[in-house]
Specification:
two-stranded antiparallel sheet, about 110 residues, alpha+beta, single chain
């Protein structure tokens, strides 16, 4: 864990020959044991930390089936949209949180 005690969205590295969407389905199943439906792609985030950099390809998703079961992390929770900014997010995830909030506000 490179960012202990920070909140991050589940996800992981894309394997050779795998699409971003296939990666997300696989990683979500491996990490929190649910099946999802991908609804919309959000803006890709490139972020440079002091000792590593990354690219995040976020998606808005909905629960298709299953119950959250933490398999690879200390904790996983569902949070109301109006509570998202109350959490200590990893720097790279914060633009995703803000875009998601703006997106959900615009579709109401």
């Amino acid at each position: 864990m490179k960012l202990p005690l920070k909140w991050e969205f589940p996800g992981g590295k894309i394997e050779t020959g795998e699409s971003k969407e296939d990666c997300l389905h696989r990683e979500i199943k491996e990490e929190i044991n649910i099946d999802i439906t991908i609804r919309k792609a959000l803006t890709m985030v490139e972020h440079q930390y002091a000792d590593f950099s990354l690219q995040l390809y976020p998606f808005v998703c909905s629960l298709q089936s299953g119950e959250v079961k933490v398999l690879e992390h200390a904790q996983a929770i569902w949070v109301a949209i109006d509570q998202l900014l109350d959490y200590d997010w990893a720097e790279a995830d914060l633009p995703i949180v803000k875009e998601y909030i703006a997106y959900t506000t615009s579709i109401k």
